């Protein structure tokens, strides 16, 4: 019969006892399972959360009755048992019940040294944690008179002798632990780990297994997988005495080891018994557990078992192994891996066990870690790469002309910028670790140095490590862990693909990106930003000639030189993607981004074009705009300088024919950027259709293609119905759409984003996590209007939000067909999408 009359009940753990995590906490539940598995768990009593709460409020359970369970003289431990182990809880108190009588008995059976040490430890613990006396007074190291002095100090301070009644000791320990849980610091700490305000604590009282005795005795922990790699491996420690050597307390290796004595050799029986218990835990608790055990004269007790603490890579390997051994289902395995943690596997990481000397912090814009010499210009980065030196490019912010330098660097650090600044977007695409908005450093270009907090100066050539996973710049070269794209990782993601119901494509601009997209098994390319193809040295000059052309004819000549280059680009992408969809966005940025900004660059350009410097300077000025992001870019260029799109369409179609001859038929997708009016689409579509007809006629070949529109202005979202009449697909460019919906520059917002988020103006950086209320409403409206006009229209997101789990959840709920994100975010997106479908 269940009784809760005074909220001070308790339960002895027997196979029949009813114990629930929500009521008794995770530890009690776990111990209860071990008891049911018939593991040798010492006698244990669980106090449910309502009892502990009553204790904190001054209402004690019958501690005499609890004490009676353990006999007249006893030693017990008291441990916390919150609902979730992450929430912490007051530390364990060991050897409750220790008094003069037990001490005398232990002295007789185990010797004075062992008995003194146990009593002293308890007095110190009790005095500081229960009686709240100053720890310094009890900090004396063990010694011949240490116990006596501790007992005297206690009596002096408390005006009473150290309590001898075990039931009274137990009552005091329970009270102090119950109250500690209610303390403000403890509350704040657990809430930071996600505990709800009303989180409660259970307590577990367990008979001590002391691990001392004449034969093989000791205590330790054992786990059966490596916490960093997840590979099967017995690790842990055993502190005890090897057989035959009297009283020599030492740490033994668990398994045979050439460096010294091991438990496996000291007692193969004990070792095998522990292995059996470990296997039973794994199978029945459906988890890799670390067991805490004691051995007394060859007798094993299992005191506790906790989930093995693990890195992300170990989490993947453990989950897959459990599912492959049919201990858990594949769905469970998927749910056991936190999607975001996967990105840890794709890159080098700073070894979490290594020391870190943090020099500055910024926004973690692209994950992974790399160490290298500091350089301050793209040219210096390229020079370093040519010398095979690893370098970290440090800029105030990056511009398109820094791209080659970014390719040459192993990581990028910028003083300014936010999550969608140029540096952040490009670095994520390249899989380079990147920190942006690192306003704690001040760059001094003249000296080629930067100054960090506390005036620490770092010069060109100094080595730093950039940890793009958590936004920290570290001094020197930190210890690293390698990426882990092993079989477990692939297997888990294949299981994810079987359950997810939204496509995941990659944003890929170059053959290298496309290969990365293939390696991470994206469902195709959702955005190829073609302008990134024009920054190679040989192309940039031709591109500039095209921009400087005075007449349509001059322009055509330059474009004819660019045509074969673009055709090769697209053929390579189609070949690599082997028949999967490839969505190519026509040229988007303002032309002046391709022109030099500094005098030296202008001089070089004047030389290359054989024009006077003054003319070059004038043209560059004429092309500059007050607000280029809202100026002559995207489809506006397509309408006013249509030859550029003509050339790109021709290159796409010729590449389609060529790649289809060799491999799977290609159906290219062509996307028009920055549209705000239906008529823009009509004008561009008419010309592209004409190019298609011309290419088909010239080459006597057939192909089909899909023409779509990028929805990245609020007006395009509002007018999506009429736009969809001419578009086979609508892809939301949520970077620009966020910029224009908020009227917030994506390149400058980094300066005040922290303040805005800290003051709760925005709950999150909207360039990072999709603003579902505002921008999201435009997405829903656009998708709804587009679909109403054209039910088979394909809807997707290709802005940076596409790789963000919360945003994927939104797109999935809205019934979008796919999201597209940087290749290195594809694995996270595949697993998140599976989580949402489960
Ligand atoms: C966008 O605006 O969301 C987008 C994908 O295009 P870009 O980032 O190249 O402007
Ligand atoms: Mg855009």
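^ Assign residues to that structure.
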């Amino acid at each position: 019969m269940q009784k809760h009359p005074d909220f001070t009940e308790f339960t002895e753990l027997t196979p029949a006892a009813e114990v629930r995590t929500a009521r008794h906490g995770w530890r009690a539940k776990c111990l209860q399972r071990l008891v049911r598995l018939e593991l040798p768990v010492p006698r244990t009593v669980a106090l449910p959360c309502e009892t502990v709460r009553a204790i904190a409020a001054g209402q004690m359970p019958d501690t005499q009755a609890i004490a009676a369970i353990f006999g007249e003289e006893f030693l017990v431990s008291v441990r916390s048992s919150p609902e979730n182990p992450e929430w912490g809880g007051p530390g364990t108190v060991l050897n409750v019940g220790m008094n003069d009588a037990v001490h005398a008995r232990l002295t007789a059976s185990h010797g004075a040294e062992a008995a003194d040490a146990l009593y002293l430890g308890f007095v110190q613990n009790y005095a500081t944690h229960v009686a709240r006396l100053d720890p310094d007074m009890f900090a004396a190291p063990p010694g011949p008179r240490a116990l006596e002095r501790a007992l005297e100090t206690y009596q002096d301070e408390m005006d009473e002798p150290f309590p001898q009644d075990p039931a009274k000791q137990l009552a005091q320990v329970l009270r102090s632990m119950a109250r500690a849980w209610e303390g403000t610091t403890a509350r704040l700490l657990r809430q930071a780990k996600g505990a709800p305000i009303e989180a409660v604590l259970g307590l577990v009282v367990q008979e001590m297994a002391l691990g001392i005795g004449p034969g093989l005795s000791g205590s330790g922990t054992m786990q059966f997988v490596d916490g960093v790699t997840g590979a099967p491996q017995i690790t842990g420690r055993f502190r005890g005495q090897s057989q035959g050597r009297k009283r020599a307390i030492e740490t033994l290796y668990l398994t045979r080891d050439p460096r010294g004595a091991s438990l496996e050799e000291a007692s193969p029986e004990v070792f095998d018994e522990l292995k059996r218990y470990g296997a039973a835990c794994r199978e029945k608790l459906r988890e890799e557990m670390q067991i805490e055990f004691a051995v007394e004269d060859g007798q094993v007790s299992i005191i506790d078992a906790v989930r093995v603490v693990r890195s992300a890579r170990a989490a993947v390997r453990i989950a897959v192994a459990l599912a492959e051994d049919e201990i858990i289902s594949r769905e469970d395995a998927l749910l056991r891996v936190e999607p975001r943690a996967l990105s840890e596997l794709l890159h080098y990481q700073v070894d979490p066990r290594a020391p870190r000397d943090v020099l500055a912090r910024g926004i973690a814009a692209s994950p992974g870690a790399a160490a290298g010499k500091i350089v301050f210009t793209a040219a210096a980065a390229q020079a370093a790469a040519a010398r095979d030196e690893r370098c970290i490019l440090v800029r105030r912010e990056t511009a398109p002309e820094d791209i080659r330098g970014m390719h040459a660097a192993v990581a990028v650090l910028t003083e300014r910028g936010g999550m969608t600044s140029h540096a952040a977007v490009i670095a994520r695409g390249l899989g380079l670790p990147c920190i942006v908005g690192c306003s704690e450093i001040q760059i001094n270009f003249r000296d080629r140095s930067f100054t960090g907090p506390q005036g620490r100066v770092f010069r060109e050539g100094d080595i730093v490590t950039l940890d793009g996973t958590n936004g920290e710049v570290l001094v020197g070269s930190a210890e690293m862990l390698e990426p882990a794209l092993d079989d477990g990782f692939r297997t888990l993601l294949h299981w994810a693909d079987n359950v997810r119901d939204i496509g995941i494509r990659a944003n890929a601009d170059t053959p290298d990106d496309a290969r990365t997209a293939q390696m991470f098994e994206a469902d195709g390319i959702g955005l190829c930003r073609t302008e990134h193809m024009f920054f190679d040295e040989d192309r940039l000059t031709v591109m500039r000639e095209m921009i400087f052309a005075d007449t349509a004819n001059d322009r055509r000549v330059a474009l004819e030189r660019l045509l074969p280059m673009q055709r090769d680009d697209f053929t390579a992408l189609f070949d690599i993607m082997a028949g999967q969809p490839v969505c190519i966005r026509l040229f988007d940025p303002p032309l002046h981004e391709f022109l030099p900004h500094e005098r030296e660059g202008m001089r070089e350009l004047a030389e290359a074009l054989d024009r006077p410097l003054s003319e070059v300077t004038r043209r560059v000025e004429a092309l500059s705009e007050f607000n280029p992001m809202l100026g002559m870019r995207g489809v506006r260029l397509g309408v006013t300088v249509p030859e550029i799109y003509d050339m790109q369409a021709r290159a796409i179609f010729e590449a389609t024919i060529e790649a289809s001859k060799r491999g799977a038929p290609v159906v290219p997708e062509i996307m028009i950027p920055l549209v705000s009016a239906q008529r823009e689409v009509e004008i561009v579509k008419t010309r592209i259709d004409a190019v298609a007809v011309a290419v088909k006629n010239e080459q006597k070949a057939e192909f089909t293609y899909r023409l779509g529109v990028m929805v990245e202005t609020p007006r395009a979202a509002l007018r999506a119905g009429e736009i969809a009449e001419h578009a086979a697909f609508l892809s939301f460019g949520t970077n620009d759409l966020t910029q224009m919906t908020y009227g917030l520059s994506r390149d400058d917002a980094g300066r005040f984003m922290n303040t805005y988020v800290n003051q709760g103006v925005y709950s999150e950086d909207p360039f990072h996590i999709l603003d579902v209320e505002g921008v999201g409403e435009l997405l829903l409206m656009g998708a709804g209007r587009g679909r109403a006009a054209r039910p088979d229209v394909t809807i997707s997101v290709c802005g940076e939000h596409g790789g963000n789990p919360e945003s994927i959840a939104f797109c999935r709920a809205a019934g979008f067909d796919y999201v597209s994100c940087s290749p290195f975010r594809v694995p996270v997106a595949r697993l998140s999408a599976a989580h949402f479908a489960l």
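DSSP finds 33 helices and 31 strands in the chain.
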